[in-house]
Amino acid sequence: MSQDPLHGITLERIITELHAKFGWPELAERIRINCFYENPSVQSSLKFLRKTPWARKKVEDLYIYTVIKKRNK
Question: How far apart are CA 6 and CA 2, in angstroms?
Fold first, then answer.
């Protein structure tokens, strides 16, 4: 079994779940990246995050902290 908490979880699923939990405005406040501010959508976020490792890491870390950790409690 993988030790990676994101093993088997797609970036699309991460963005979709974070959007459902927080909405675009709160996501933009929590992680200050333009794809959450200007015309936000799952597709535009995927495009940006796939090309921008530092931003993807922030999104993945937020997902681990707010979704996975809470789910495992």
Answer: 9
Q: Rounded CA gap, 64 and 73, in Å? A: 13
* Amino acid letter for position 47: K
What global pTM score does this model have?
A: 0.89
Range of the domain at 53: 11-71
Residue 19 lies in a domain: yes
pLDDT of residue 67: 84
Do the Cβ atoms of 44 and 35 come closer than 8 Å? yes
CATH of the domain at 15: 1.10.720.30
